[in-house]
Design goal:
- The complex is a heterodimer of chains A (173) and B (497).
- By secondary structure, chain A is an all-beta fold.
- Chain A has two domains: 80 residues, Glycoprotein, Type 4 Pilin (2-Layer Sandwich), CATH 3.30.700.30; 75 residues, Beta Barrel (OB fold (Dihydrolipoamide Acetyltransferase, E2P)).
- Chain A has one helix and 16 strands.
- In chain A, strands 1-2-3-4-5-6-7-8 form an eight-stranded antiparallel barrel.
- The longest helix of chain A is centred in the middle third of the chain and has 4 residues.
- Chain B is α+β, with helices and mostly antiparallel strands.
- Chain B has 17 helices and 22 strands.
- In chain B, the strands form six sheets. An eight-stranded antiparallel sheet of chain B has the order 13-12-9-10-11-14-21-19, sandwiched between helices. A five-stranded parallel sheet of chain B has the order 3-2-1-4-5.
- In chain B, a hairpin with a 5-residue loop joins strand 9 and strand 10.
- In chain B, helix 12 packs antiparallel against helix 13.
- The longest helix of chain B is centred in the middle third of the chain and has 19 residues.
- Chain B is globular.
- Classes of the chains: A mainly beta (173), B alpha+beta (497).
Chain lengths: 173, 497
């Protein structure tokens, strides 16, 4: 079986075969022979060159969560990653920039109106979760193009709270 | 006392239920709609719904909690920490309804809870305090004048509470307005009281607090100190005892002042007297925390006294069964607080479902936790998930034990700051005991950039492939939805949202 796995934004091709009681992994440039003992649906033990590694694994709707030797990994299958539509920090070709909440939470305050001019680092909105407030600041100089939410709305980190339009000529720095 | 209602959630509710079980006292849990499956609900003898998730409709809903206490014929209410723990109206209401409030009497609670009033009392009793406002700020001009008088930098604090909520360092006049407004909003949302005040900001202090127990018969003892200097944004993350900063003489002196503070205020039950210790070892009274503290286990492990059980005994009228001279500290204990925060994303809250959890155990390792696989971590409450407390004969061994236990702590599904905590306890400066409140900004400000590169990438990829194969070729059912919103989505697995 071939798998295309995405880890930290990079696609890795891994092929996996089961031969004579062993798993053979091929990373393209490297092959590994591994023994695996399944303990429960979330736990298995890998034996590589005589050394054992407990691995914990769990799945949600988007990702495979793994724990290996005290390190945590989140891995996605490549096909699921294509769906991602916009980049959080990116400015698109029309010079628009979407501003998302850095954490899911409730919008306490929106400090700007559509059409407002904003400075770099100007506070745009305040989001609250777990009793902590977080100010969302403008990362560019520009205008508020569109506001998608109102105060007291719940937001996650994927839907833009508002959209800014870049004003290039005034850009300082 | 036959039955106790626990007006709280999370690990502290679990901790209290465990103490009750040992004492053969029945327990009543209360819960909000998102906490139907919570550990405290699972463990208590009975559990009753409070209401919608927001605290004001659930864990801060005094009428509803009293109603359940009466309906279940509970003799007493234990408020835990946070929520109603330091709310004098609630303590008073319990007194009126003839329900024992497991905490200080309402009069002492009102006094120590009002940081401004308690400062006045301390001045009279000649307890050393930090220079600052003698009253709550009324308007912005008032704050501006006071700040000038005290001299920048100043510290803005909530009159009604602790835990860093509402607290802000203000370096200049320009920052004053936005900080005061934000501080008031945070104070209002956390404590239901927006009063804030200013005091002199002491740079590079240590935060050292003394645990006290005071019975209803005038007996007061202290159970030594806890060093709580390791903080992020005024939130404690690692606490230990004994403090590396105290000599036996200083410990004795501070302990005596702590007892004097308690006697001066007529305080009863368990409490904590907080001090700031400056670099010249001058100490200043900060406040009395009128509750069981998050970090109480380190005291329990080094003194052998169960503080929650002591609280219950004191509230039921028993005399303290030990005197000051009976108490001593043995070994060293370190607590690490596990928060639902993403250290790689500026420590912002990390919400969602805990898919799998495996907690460390072993000799001298204590987990105060309410986690289980399948628990939903929601936006409504404090980000604290669990506490890992390690005890050993020496500080060095306690550090190693903490690092070992953190390394074996598995939480999958949401982000936590376990990796960060490991780097705190293994930091060479932590080993020297040189722990001031600027420890994190000074030593770990560039943690994200400097942290060790992950070593087991291949193993993880291999594990993922194996996991998918074992699940029959396709592990994850990908939905068309662009985002996973833990509370907006109502998948078939989600109950109570």
């Amino acid at each position: 079986m071939e798998y295309q796995l995405v880890l930290d934004g990079e696609i890795h091709k891994v092929s996996l075969e089961f031969k004579e009681g062993r798993y053979v992994f091929d990373f393209g440039n490297k092959k590994l022979e591994v023994l695996s003992e399944s303990v429960d649906p979330n736990t298995f033990i890998l034996v590589i060159d005589g050394k054992t590694y407990p691995v914990y694994i769990a799945f949600d709707q988007k990702k495979i969560h793994l724990w290996v030797e005290g390190e945590k990994y989140e891995i996605q299958e490549a096909e699921s990653v294509k769906e991602k539509k916009f980049e959080r920090e990116g400015i698109d070709v029309e010079g628009k920039k979407s501003i998302c909440a850095p954490m899911p939470g409730k919008i306490l305050k929106i400090l700007v109106k559509e059409g407002d001019k904003v400075r770099k680092n100007q506070s745009l909105a305040i989001v609250e979760a777990m009793k902590m407030e977080h100010e969302i600041k403008a990362s560019i100089v520009g205008f508020v193009k569109k506001i998608n939410f109102k105060e007291d709305d719940l937001v996650d980190t994927q839907e833009p709270i508002l959209e800014l339009e870049v004003e290039t000529e005034e850009q300082t720095e | 006392m036959n039955k106790i209602l626990i007006a709280n959630r999370g690990e502290i509710a679990v901790r209290i239920i465990r103490a009750c079980k040992e004492m053969e006292i029945s327990t009543v849990a209360v819960y909000s709609e998102v906490d139907r499956k919570a550990m405290h609900v699972q463990l208590a003898d009975e559990a009753h719904l409070l209401g919608a998730p927001p605290p004001l409709e659930s864990y801060l809903n005094i009428d509803k909690i009293i109603e359940i206490a009466k309906m279940t014929k509970a003799d007493a209410i234990h408020p835990g920490y946070g929520f109603l723990a330091e709310n004098p109206q609630f303590a008073k209401r319990c007194e009126q309804e003839k329900i024992i409030f497991i905490g200080p009497n309402s009069k002492a609670l009102a006094l120590v809870g009002d940081k401004v009033e308690s400062r006045k009392t301390m001045i009279k009793a000649e307890i050393p305090i930090i220079p600052g406002m003698k009253a709550k700020g009324e308007n912005l001009d008032d704050f501006a004048k006071q700040a000038e008088k005290i001299g920048y930098p100043v510290l803005l604090k909530a009159s009604a509470g602790g835990g860093g909520k509402g607290m802000r360092v203000i370096n200049s006049k320009e920052e004053l307005q936005s900080s005061v407004e934000a501080g008031m909003r945070e104070a209002k949302s956390a404590f239901g009281d927006e009063s804030v005040y200013l005091e002199k900001y002491i740079e590079r202090p240590r935060h050292v607090e003394f645990q006290v127990l005071a019975d209803l018969h005038g007996n007061v003892v202290h159970l030594f100190e806890r060093e709580c200097s390791i903080q992020r944004r005024h939130q404690k993350i690692v606490e230990e005892t004994p403090s590396t900063a105290l000599t036996p003489e200083l410990r004795k002196k501070m302990g005596e002042v702590a007892v004097k503070v308690i006697k001066t205020t007529g305080y009863t039950n368990a409490g904590t007297v907080e001090f700031l210790l400056d670099e010249d070892k001058n100490f200043y009274f900060l406040e009395v925390n009128a509750r069981i503290q998050v970090e109480h286990p380190v005291t329990e492990l080094t003194t052998g006294i169960d503080l929650v059980k002591s609280q219950i005994r004191i509230a039921s009228g028993e005399k303290l069964s030990f005197k000051q001279e009976d108490l001593s500290q043995r070994g060293h204990a370190i607590e690490c607080r596990i928060y639902a925060e993403d250290p790689e994303n500026d420590f912002l809250p990390s919400l969602g479902k805990i898919l799998f959890v495996k907690e460390p155990c072993g000799p001298g390792i204590r987990m105060d936790s309410s986690l289980f696989s399948g628990l939903d971590v929601t936006m409504h409450y404090d980000p604290i998930l669990a506490k890992l407390i390690c005890w050993a004969e020496t500080r060095n061994e306690a550090i190693n034990k903490s690092a070992m236990a953190l390394s074996g702590y598995v939480i999958l599904g949401i982000k936590t700051q376990i990796d960060f905590l490991k780097d705190v306890v293994l930091h060479p400066e932590f080993a020297t005991g040189n722990t001031n409140t600027d420890f994190i900004p000074k030593n770990l400000f560039d943690w994200k950039e400097k942290r060790d590169k992950k070593k087991f990438k291949e193993m993880a990829l291999l594990g993922a492939a194996l996991g998918i194969m074992n699940q029959g070729g396709k592990a994850v059912k990908f939905e068309k939805k662009s985002a996973y919103d833990p509370w907006l989505s109502t998948g078939p697995w989600e109950i109570g949202t």
